[in-house]
Amino acid sequence: KQEFMVMAMRLKQADLWREDVRDMIGLTEKKMDSYMLVNCLQLGFVVCLFTEGRLEPGTPEWLLWLYMLSLSGAFMILLMSVWLAMHASIVAQGSSARLLTQLVRPAIPSWEQLESMRTYAHAFEGVTATQMLRVPVLQTVAEGRTAGAGGFSGPLDSAPGSAAADPWGLERRGDDIYELQRRPLPANRHVR
Predict the structure, then answer these.
(1) Which has fewest Cβ within 10 Å: 39, 104, 124, 132?
(2) Residue 152 · residue 123 · CB < 8 Å
(3) Residue 69: is its pLDDT beyond 90?
(4) How far is the C-alpha of 117 from the C-alpha of 111, rounded, in Å?
(5) What pTM was computed for the model?
């Protein structure tokens, strides 16, 4: 029961980390969306000034050139800011997916942790009737020892589950299971 509580706490901790990543990335996305909205409106104003914002007849030519130059500069800067805001939003979403799938993954218990919480069926079948009807934890506490896999307190190699007690080979250690092996992050299949 204690092991399950520890695993539940680790999962909650990973959920909090994942929520923090989502909040930080969401902040960037919201800022970029608001920048994009405001800059699109300003870009529309510049286009309106290009088409309908004519200066009065008789305006000096140098003033007309400055007017068109400032409108062209504003158009290019606003267009670039909209493009960069879209790009930043897409990059933030991609970074969020990468962080959530590769770096801030939920805690998966190791094989040793699963093995220590596991009980073997033949461990129960091989005990006497008095041990079957005993109070579960009382004998272990009275003897002052810790129960390992299926109440077995010896080394894991000689734990119940050997070939003699398991004729069908269903109770195995599972050291060859890919998902339960500890590897450095870049060596995992999903990161490549």
Answers:
(1) 132
(2) yes
(3) yes
(4) 10
(5) 0.53
